[in-house]
């Protein structure tokens, strides 16, 4: 196969053995290769352009004040996004803390207890839908579920909204990774008299650990930049939020959204700085997750 | 291997630690069962809330809610048609642009790419999916839209002006770069990584023997792709496209930045419009009473549509992909 592929790569001009190949076949073949390569370059170009834009616009706005001062009010000079950064960290950690146990256990159910059952098939289906469901609807759902009954916006609602987005990611990766663990390992554990829970925790989880951690990191990367579900739950504000997380909790994505469209120059600069910070963090998390998985050689 | 030896060591531990209480065993089983049910109840909760919240609007306006294009907060008259049309049109533009590019990328990665380049290129394409949607919005509004207005909309408008159909569809009254077409293009970039990586996985699963035998009888790469790979993967690729469509329909922040958020039905692809998601994002926080019910009803429509699309995607992909 490799020789065939290599052969097809090599000839810039028509190779000798193409003598009897009709011109149209040759043209179609060349066109396919050129177009596919161009499209791939276009995709890479888009990522490069977006990163370049963030660097160009964002680095100018970066200063120590960005990390130490709170978001400025309308018309005031200077300011930073310290409260938004801390708020985002808290919301993301809250979301992951809620989502990880639920996601891991649900994934465990799908791969171990419920394997092959009708219920597991239904839940797997539902999980796949949730994985791609519009995140703004999750914001609406949590608004009706928590914000309205509790009488106001809160960081807790924001955390739950993010958790709902993270859970399907963790469920999917946990299940996929547990399925890669050979059944003979489990049988060996069971043969030693270990109950099911011990087999799962000490054998299956242990063998799939790297993949499961990767899933959690990818889920973190996914929720760290989510804006839509926070609009109606954690909202935003320009102060340090109260420690009990009631009322609006400032966070980076919504701050960026509001500041980027604002008429104030310093707000826009802060929005670009925030955008740079959040994107680099997320891309770093995604790359770390990939390296972790590669190192473990699970796939 | 490491795992096995760990297990053996376990048996040499003190007898007290070896015993897992039956209560823990049962508790663990129920905890995982319960967590699985939570996943189920979240979906049920979402659809339940949307229906509960949207019901007053559906009752008030009846079927006319879907077909009416009114959206008047002052008169409390609401109709979903502009938002529905905007959602469908922008998603359709995204598919028309995004699908060929995604397929091209998948074919490049599986058929043309030298092995050493495969991993880095795959990673770059997948990182496109990791970029937050708000960043796409900022890029679209501040970088892409001005360029698009200057180099595409203005020349194109002067060319097509007065032409029968093109003069309407491609005519920009205000060439600001913001509008339906820009939203569609941004959405296309956003769904490319999803469609491309799934299609790549599908193409990878086709047995190498099939490819090799086609090359063996003298097929060109184009013929292998066209007559061997695509027929083999066809249904699943449609599934991948449906998944991209599901993403495009519900995308919020990027679209809110670039679509212009106007409640106007226009035949021109360059005019501002709005989608269901962008309208909810714009209005929900200030809404009360019937407006809130109408927005939840919009959410209900969006949910039903994406559910159908994603369910189809899942069924079509599952046909080939058996874990």
UniProtKB/TrEMBL annotation, chain A:
<dbReference type="InterPro" id="IPR051408">
    <property type="entry name" value="Phosphate_transprt_permease"/>
</dbReference>
<feature type="transmembrane region" description="Helical">
    <location>
        <begin position="122"/>
        <end position="147"/>
    </location>
</feature>
<keyword id="KW-1133">Transmembrane helix</keyword>
<dbReference type="GO" id="GO:0035435">
    <property type="term" value="P:phosphate ion transmembrane transport"/>
</dbReference>
<feature type="transmembrane region" description="Helical">
    <location>
        <begin position="270"/>
        <end position="293"/>
    </location>
</feature>
<protein>
    <recommendedName>
        <fullName>Phosphate transport system permease protein PstA</fullName>
    </recommendedName>
</protein>
<feature type="domain" description="ABC transmembrane type-1">
    <location>
        <begin position="85"/>
        <end position="289"/>
    </location>
</feature>
<keyword id="KW-1003">Cell membrane</keyword>
<keyword id="KW-0813">Transport</keyword>
<dbReference type="InterPro" id="IPR000515">
    <property type="entry name" value="MetI-like"/>
</dbReference>
<keyword id="KW-0812">Transmembrane</keyword>
<feature type="transmembrane region" description="Helical">
    <location>
        <begin position="153"/>
        <end position="171"/>
    </location>
</feature>
<dbReference type="GO" id="GO:0005315">
    <property type="term" value="F:phosphate transmembrane transporter activity"/>
</dbReference>
<feature type="transmembrane region" description="Helical">
    <location>
        <begin position="31"/>
        <end position="56"/>
    </location>
</feature>
<dbReference type="InterPro" id="IPR005672">
    <property type="entry name" value="Phosphate_PstA"/>
</dbReference>
<dbReference type="Pfam" id="PF00528">
    <property type="entry name" value="BPD_transp_1"/>
</dbReference>
<dbReference type="InterPro" id="IPR035906">
    <property type="entry name" value="MetI-like_sf"/>
</dbReference>
<feature type="transmembrane region" description="Helical">
    <location>
        <begin position="245"/>
        <end position="264"/>
    </location>
</feature>
<feature type="transmembrane region" description="Helical">
    <location>
        <begin position="81"/>
        <end position="110"/>
    </location>
</feature>
<keyword id="KW-0472">Membrane</keyword>
<comment type="similarity">
    <text>Belongs to the binding-protein-dependent transport system permease family. CysTW subfamily.</text>
</comment>
<keyword id="KW-0592">Phosphate transport</keyword>
From TrEMBL, chain B:
<dbReference type="InterPro" id="IPR011864">
    <property type="entry name" value="Phosphate_PstC"/>
</dbReference>
<dbReference type="InterPro" id="IPR035906">
    <property type="entry name" value="MetI-like_sf"/>
</dbReference>
<dbReference type="Pfam" id="PF00528">
    <property type="entry name" value="BPD_transp_1"/>
</dbReference>
<keyword id="KW-0997">Cell inner membrane</keyword>
<feature type="transmembrane region" description="Helical">
    <location>
        <begin position="36"/>
        <end position="58"/>
    </location>
</feature>
<comment type="similarity">
    <text>Belongs to the binding-protein-dependent transport system permease family. CysTW subfamily.</text>
</comment>
<feature type="transmembrane region" description="Helical">
    <location>
        <begin position="121"/>
        <end position="145"/>
    </location>
</feature>
<dbReference type="GO" id="GO:0005886">
    <property type="term" value="C:plasma membrane"/>
</dbReference>
<feature type="transmembrane region" description="Helical">
    <location>
        <begin position="294"/>
        <end position="317"/>
    </location>
</feature>
<dbReference type="InterPro" id="IPR000515">
    <property type="entry name" value="MetI-like"/>
</dbReference>
<keyword id="KW-1133">Transmembrane helix</keyword>
<protein>
    <recommendedName>
        <fullName>Phosphate transport system permease protein</fullName>
    </recommendedName>
</protein>
<keyword id="KW-0813">Transport</keyword>
<dbReference type="InterPro" id="IPR051124">
    <property type="entry name" value="Phosphate_Transport_Permease"/>
</dbReference>
<keyword id="KW-0592">Phosphate transport</keyword>
<keyword id="KW-0472">Membrane</keyword>
<feature type="transmembrane region" description="Helical">
    <location>
        <begin position="78"/>
        <end position="109"/>
    </location>
</feature>
<feature type="domain" description="ABC transmembrane type-1">
    <location>
        <begin position="84"/>
        <end position="313"/>
    </location>
</feature>
<dbReference type="GO" id="GO:0005315">
    <property type="term" value="F:phosphate transmembrane transporter activity"/>
</dbReference>
<comment type="function">
    <text>Part of the binding-protein-dependent transport system for phosphate; probably responsible for the translocation of the substrate across the membrane.</text>
</comment>
<keyword id="KW-1003">Cell membrane</keyword>
<keyword id="KW-0812">Transmembrane</keyword>
């Amino acid at each position: 196969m490799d020789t065939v592929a290599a052969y097809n790569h090599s000839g810039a001009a028509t190779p000798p053995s193409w003598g009897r190949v009709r011109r149209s076949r040759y043209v179609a073949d060349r066109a396919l290769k050129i177009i596919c390569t161009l499209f791939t370059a276009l995709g890479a170009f888009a990522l490069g352009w977006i990163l370049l834009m963030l660097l160009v616009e964002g680095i100018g706005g970066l200063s120590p004040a960005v990390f130490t001062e709170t978001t400025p009010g309308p018309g005031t000079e200077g300011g930073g996004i310290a409260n938004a950064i801390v708020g985002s960290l808290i919301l993301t950690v809250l979301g992951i803390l809620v989502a990880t146990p639920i996601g891991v256990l649900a994934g465990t159910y799908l791969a171990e207890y419920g394997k092959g059952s009708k219920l597991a098939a239904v839940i797997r289906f539902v999980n796949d839908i949730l994985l791609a469901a519009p995140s703004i609807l999750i914001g609406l759902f949590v608004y009706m579920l928590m914000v309205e009954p509790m009488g106001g916006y809160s960081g807790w609602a924001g955390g739950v909204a993010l958790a709902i987005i993270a859970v399907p990611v963790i469920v999917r990766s946990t299940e996929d990774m547990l399925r890669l663990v050979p059944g003979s390992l489990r049988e060996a554990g069971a043969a030693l008299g270990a109950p099911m829970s011990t087999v799962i925790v000490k054998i299956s989880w242990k063998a799939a650990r790297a993949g499961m951690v990767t899933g959690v990191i990818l889920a973190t990367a996914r929720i760290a930049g989510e804006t839509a579900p926070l609009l109606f739950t954690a909202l935003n504000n320009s102060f340090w939020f109260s420690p009990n997380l009631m009322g609006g909790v400032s966070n980076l994505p919504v701050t960026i959204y509001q500041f980027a469209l604002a008429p104030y120059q310093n707000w826009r600069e802060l929005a670009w700085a925030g955008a740079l910070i959040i994107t680099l963090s997320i891309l770093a998390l995604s790359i770390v997750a990939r390296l972790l998985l590669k190192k473990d050689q699970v796939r | 291997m490491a795992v096995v030896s760990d297990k053996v060591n376990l048996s040499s531990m003190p007898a007290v630690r070896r015993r897992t209480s039956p209560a823990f065993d049962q508790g663990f089983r129920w905890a995982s069962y319960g967590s699985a049910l939570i996943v189920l109840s979240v979906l049920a909760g979402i659809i339940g809330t949307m229906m509960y919240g949207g019901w007053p609007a559906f009752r008030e306006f009846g079927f006319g809610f879907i077909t009416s294009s009114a959206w008047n907060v002052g008169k409390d008259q609401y109709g979903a048609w502009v938002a529905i049309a905007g959602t469908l049109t922008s998603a359709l533009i995204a598919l028309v642009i995004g699908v060929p590019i995604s397929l091209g990328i998948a074919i490049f990665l599986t058929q043309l790419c030298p092995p050493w380049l495969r991993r880095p290129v795959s990673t770059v394409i997948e990182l496109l999916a990791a970029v937050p949607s708000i960043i796409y919005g900022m890029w679209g509004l501040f970088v892409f839209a001005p360029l698009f207005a200057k180099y595409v909309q203005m020349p194109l408008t002067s060319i097509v002006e007065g032409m029968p159909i093109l003069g309407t569809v491609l005519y920009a009254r205000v060439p600001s770069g913001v509008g339906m077409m820009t939203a569609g293009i941004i959405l296309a970039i956003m769904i490319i990584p999803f469609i491309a990586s799934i299609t790549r996985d599908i193409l990878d699963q086709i047995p190498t023997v099939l490819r090799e035998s086609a090359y063996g009888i003298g097929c060109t790469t184009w013929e292998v792709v066209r007559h061997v790979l695509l027929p083999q993967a066809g249904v699943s690729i449609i599934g991948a496209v449906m998944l991209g469509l599901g993403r495009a329909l519900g995308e919020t922040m990027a679209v809110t930045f670039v679509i212009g958020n106007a409640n106007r039905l226009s035949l021109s692809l360059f005019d501002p419009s709005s989608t269901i998601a962008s309208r909810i994002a714009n209005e929900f926080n200030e809404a009360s009473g019937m407006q809130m019910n109408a927005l939840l009803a919009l959410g209900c429509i969006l949910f039903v549509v994406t559910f159908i699309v994603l369910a189809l995607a899942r069924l079509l992909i599952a046909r080939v992909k058996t874990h």
